[in-house]
From TrEMBL:
GO molecular function: nitronate monooxygenase activity
Keywords: Flavoprotein, FMN, Oxidoreductase
Organism the protein comes from: Strigomonas culicis
Organism lineage: Eukaryota, Discoba, Euglenozoa, Kinetoplastea, Metakinetoplastina
One matching Pfam family: NMO
Tree of life domain: Eukaryota
InterPro entries: Aldolase_TIM (IPR013785), NMO (IPR004136)
Annotated Gene Ontology cellular component terms: cytoplasm
Name the record gives this protein: Enoyl-[acyl carrier protein] reductase II
Membrane-crossing residue ranges in chain numbering: none
Length: 319
């Protein structure tokens, strides 16, 4: 896409980023997306430093194109360890989330790394501008997994943020995007690119267990719910685990009581091991429209073709 700020920033063909999802965003998925002209991200949240280094090294062997790592910075010690590995391995792009954009931006810039931060609100987007990040991801609450307290949907979020940012700041939309039509929709209101999670989680190259992919392909409208607001809003599939967390959250238990049940290994159980009833499955609302498991190459072709078809139709509209 000529003259697109996201493509120019990352050196990619299409302004499409595969979100750095826990257990799903392996080196295989990241490399496949980058090889098809997008930007693939490795999701580091579930990885120790040795595993992260292994994924980075394998990704570098699998693609000569730019790729990145997503780092959740809410646990600072772990984030610092991950940033150290990223710098040692000379990863060109880092997406940070779940914390202050000021925390690592300066250090990463000193090593020539492109820094992008994920936000759920205009307030935090403006903090990103102050911190000097290179681009901003504005993620609506349609997205799977952890969300902002504001519960703002993607379209109003982009509509609100874009006029308040410097014109040169690339703005990437996330949350509820899974088709060329939805990419066109967010571009129409000011996005320069998209970050897609759920749709890429349901590809052949995704690190999710096959049983999990099969369950999600069968998911219907309304099977995800945003819950756990006392501990941090999280969108979960409403399997046995998700229903239990929702009931506990609605009952008014304390954060500590909720987190004691939430545990530390349930995402592995649900996403990596394929326990589709008793494990945690973080997934977005748009899963109801993800009815197959294509390869990344097939998905990228579909996204681009549908985007071009949609924008051609829109160009002919008059009021």
């Amino acid at each position: 896409m000529e003259n697109n700020s996201v493509c120019k920033l990352f050196g990619i063909k299409y302004p499409i980023i595969a979100g750095g999802m826990v257990w799903c965003s392996s080196w295989q998925l990241a490399a496949a997306v980058s090889n098809e002209g997008g930007l693939g991200l490795i999701g580091s949240a579930s990885m120790n430093t040795d595993v992260l280094r292994e994924h980075i090294q394998k990704c570098k062997k699998a693609t000569q194109k730019p790729f990145g790592v997503n780092v959740a910075i809410n646990i600072r010690a772990k984030a610092e360890d991950h940033i150290k590995i990223i710098l040692e391995e000379k990863v060109p792009v880092v997406f940070t989330s779940a914390g202050s954009p000021k925390l690592f931006t300066k250090e990463l810039h000193e090593h020539g790394v492109i820094v992008v931060h994920v936000v759920p609100s205009l307030k935090l987007a403006l903090k990103c501008v102050e911190a000097g990040v290179d681009a901003i991801v504005a993620e609506g609450f349609e997205a799977g997994g952890h969300n902002g307290m504001e519960e703002t949907a993607t379209l109003p979020l982009i509509h609100h943020i874009r006029p308040n940012l410097p014109k040169e700041m690339p703005l990437i939309a996330a949350g509820g995007i899974a088709s060329g039509r939805s990419i066109a929709a967010v571009f129409a209101i000011g996005a320069d690119g998209v970050q897609i999670g759920t749709r890429f989680a349901l590809t052949k190259e995704s690190g999710a267990a096959q049983a999990t992919k099969d369950r999600l392909v069968a998911a219907k409208e309304g099977e995800t719910v945003l819950t756990m607001k006392v501990a941090g809003p999280t969108r979960l599939l409403q399997n046995s685990f998700g229903k239990k967390m929702r009931e506990l959250s609605d009952s008014g238990v304390s954060k500590d009581e909720l987190m004691a049940v939430y545990g530390k290994h349930n995402t592995r159980r649900g996403l990596h091991e394929g326990d589709v009833e008793n494990g945690e499955i973080d997934i977005g609302q748009v899963v109801a429209d993800c009815n197959d498991i294509p390869s990344v190459a097939e998905l990228m072709v579909s996204l681009v073709a549908e985007f071009n078809e949609t924008t051609t139709k829109m160009a002919a509209l008059k009021m």
